[in-house]
């Protein structure tokens, strides 16, 4: 079973405007609200790919029904540890004129040490060596940056594979614990290793260094520029496809879903990479964090050109 862990879920409020006017009244063209947060988005795309997962993590009690009802409507199993407080709302400003998305991500609820410990104990009782765990997203107040590293060590103790998608110090500390796989974007990678994010050779070298440390799969995404996949045996590159963009929010999560699906199903590095790119590309063609459909993912998969490096 795949478990996605979201410690800081979010409602994504997408506001479409023509052009942001600082200090003025801005009027929206349209708005939408989606259930989001990185691990939850991964579970949404896994469902489309036809694979079950359990969405776990920590959820604020106050507006929890918005999340739980939505996941139930998609037939995605959820098993969150509930804490008091409200799940954050993250604002995504889509500017039509400039074709940009600006994220304003809130902090979220506060988690006490005791609550976190209860969640970890419960979560560890759920998983065994047959499972794959996706740890992703930012941390609510009260949880230290060491959490992903700590969880990776505990999960490795149970022979559970982990895919990590985090940033800043939680990524640095997570990588020190050597997860099975990671999916940084180039900016997250730059926070980890000194790279020139415009130079493919520099990105590949960073990927190889991480593989030499013991991480088995390193998928580095670079938005429209595409992605690089470095494993012990292969190095692949693919350019991003030119597609109509609705919202880039959740592209990385969709990519992680493709990666998790491929790893869970024993696909080759080549197939994993193609599927991950297809999921990310299909996602940018949907509004907000709406899930891409499977037919589009299949169609894009057939168009992706992967170059071995
Ligand atoms: N503007 C875009 N055009 C085409 N594909 C995109 C675009 N943005 C993202 N993608 C696809 O989604 C993948 C993940 O996007 P990226 O923005 O790098 O992730 P993250 O959301 O983690 O920052 C990219 O590698 C690419 O395949
Ligand atoms: O936990 P963070 O880092 O604040 O990110 C949460 C945000 O990331 C998202 O999961 C989208 O992530 P990506 O665009 O990186 O795939 C949104 O749904 C959510 O608002």
TrEMBL record:
BP terms from Gene Ontology? carbohydrate catabolic process; D-tagatose 6-phosphate catabolic process; lactose metabolic process; small molecule metabolic process
Recorded protein name is: Tagatose-6-phosphate kinase
- UniProt keyword list: ATP-binding, Kinase, Lactose metabolism, Nucleotide-binding, Transferase
User: Has UniProt tagged this entry with the keyword Kinase?
Assistant: yes
**Stretches assigned to coiled coil:** none
Tell me the pathway.
Carbohydrate metabolism; D-tagatose 6-phosphate degradation; D-glyceraldehyde 3-phosphate and glycerone phosphate from D-tagatose 6-phosphate: step 1/2
Occurrences of domain Carbohydrate kinase PfkB (ranges) = 7-292
> Per the UniProt entry, what species is this protein from, by scientific name?
Tepidimicrobium xylanilyticum
- Which InterPro entries does the entry link to? 1-PFruKinase, Carboh/pur_kinase_PfkB_CS, PfkB_dom, Ribokinase-like, Tagatose/fructose_Pkinase
> Known EC number(s)?
2.7.1.144
**Keyword presence, Cell inner membrane:** no
Q: Which GO terms describe its molecular function?
A: 1-phosphofructokinase activity; ATP binding; tagatose-6-phosphate kinase activity
State what this protein does.
Catalyzes the ATP-dependent phosphorylation of fructose-l-phosphate to fructose-l,6-bisphosphate.
Its recorded reaction(s) are: D-tagatofuranose 6-phosphate + ATP = D-tagatofuranose 1,6-bisphosphate + ADP + H(+); beta-D-fructose 1-phosphate + ATP = beta-D-fructose 1,6-bisphosphate + ADP + H(+)
Q: What is the similarity comment for this entry?
A: Belongs to the carbohydrate kinase PfkB family. LacC subfamily.
Query: Which branch of life, at top level?
Result: Bacteria
Under the heading PANTHER family, the entry gives:
1-PHOSPHOFRUCTOKINASE (PTHR46566:SF1), 1-PHOSPHOFRUCTOKINASE-RELATED (PTHR46566)
């Amino acid at each position: 079973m795949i478990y996605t862990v979201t410690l800081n879920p979010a409602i994504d409020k997408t506001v479409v405007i023509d052009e942001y006017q600082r200090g003025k009244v801005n009027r929206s063209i349209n708005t939408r609200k989606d259930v989001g947060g990185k691990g939850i988005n991964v579970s949404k795309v896994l469902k489309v790919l036809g694979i079950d997962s359990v969405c776990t993590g920590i959820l604020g009690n106050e507006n929890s029904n918005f999340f739980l009802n939505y996941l139930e409507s998609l037939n995605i199993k959820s098993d969150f540890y509930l804490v008091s407080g409200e799940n954050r709302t993250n604002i995504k400003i889509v500017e039509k004129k400039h074709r940009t998305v600006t994220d304003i991500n809130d902090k979220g609820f506060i988690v006490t040490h005791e609550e976190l410990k209860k969640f970890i104990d419960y979560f560890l009782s759920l998983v065994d060596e047959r499972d794959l765990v996706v740890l992703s997203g930012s941390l609510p107040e009260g949880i230290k940056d060491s959490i992903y590293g700590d969880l990776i060590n505990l999960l490795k103790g149970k022979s559970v594979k982990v895919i990590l998608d985090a940033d800043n110090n939680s990524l640095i500390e997570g990588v020190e614990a050597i997860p099975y796989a990671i999916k940084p974007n180039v900016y997250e990678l730059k926070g980890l290793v000194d790279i020139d994010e415009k130079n493919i050779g520099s990105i590949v070298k960073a990927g190889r260094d991480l593989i030499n440390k013991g991480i088995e799969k390193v998928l580095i995404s670079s938005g429209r520029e595409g992605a690089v996949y470095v494993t012990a045996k292969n190095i692949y590159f693919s350019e991003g496809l030119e597609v109509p963009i609705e919202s880039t929010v959740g592209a990385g999560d969709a990519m992680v879903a493709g990666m998790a699906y491929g790893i869970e199903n024993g696909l080759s590095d080549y197939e994993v990479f193609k599927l991950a790119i297809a999921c990310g590309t299909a996602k940018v063609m949907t509004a907000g964090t709406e899930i891409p459909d499977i037919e589009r993912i299949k169609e894009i998969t057939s168009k992706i050109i992967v170059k071995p490096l």
